[in-house]
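Researcher: Let's do a round of design. I'm pasting the structure tokens now; please hold your answer until I've finished.
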């Protein structure tokens, strides 16, 4: 039961932090097109990891901007959510999209190699038709 509640809190924190990030005026955050991909709140609600991805900008500058804006974001979260304790926020870059793209690239490479092997085998069969006639 408690795990279900935590899942709902994680979803709500994700949604609210994403909305609050649109209000941040820091150009390091505003210009980076930050997307909140998830949140993980501890069972005691004291800490929350906010997973994000971004399109533009320098990662170090964005991290500094998020750290500077975390007080503002936490305050907005306290106003919007009715929690006994508002968690301290830690921002963690979500690399799952990049990892997925890397895996997709590897799978495409394997697929191309298999297609190349199949093409070579088909060409070899066409060059040696006597093998089929003997059977």
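Researcher: That's everything. Go ahead.
Model: Designed sequence:
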């Amino acid at each position: 039961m408690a795990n279900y509640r935590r899942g709902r809190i994680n979803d709500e924190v994700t949604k609210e932090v994403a909305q609050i990030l649109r209000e941040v005026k820091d150009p390091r955050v505003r210009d980076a097109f930050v997307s909140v991909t998830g949140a993980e709140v501890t069972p005691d609600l004291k800490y929350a990891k906010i997973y994000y991805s971004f399109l533009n900008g320098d990662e170090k500058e964005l991290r500094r901007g998020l750290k500077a804006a975390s007080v503002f974001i936490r305050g907005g979260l306290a106003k919007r959510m009715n929690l006994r304790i508002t968690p301290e926020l830690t921002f963690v870059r979500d690399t799952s999209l990049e990892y997925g793209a890397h895996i997709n690239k590897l799978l495409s490479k394997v697929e191309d190699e298999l297609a190349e092997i199949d093409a070579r085998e088909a060409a070899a069969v066409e060059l040696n038709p006597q093998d089929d006639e003997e059977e």
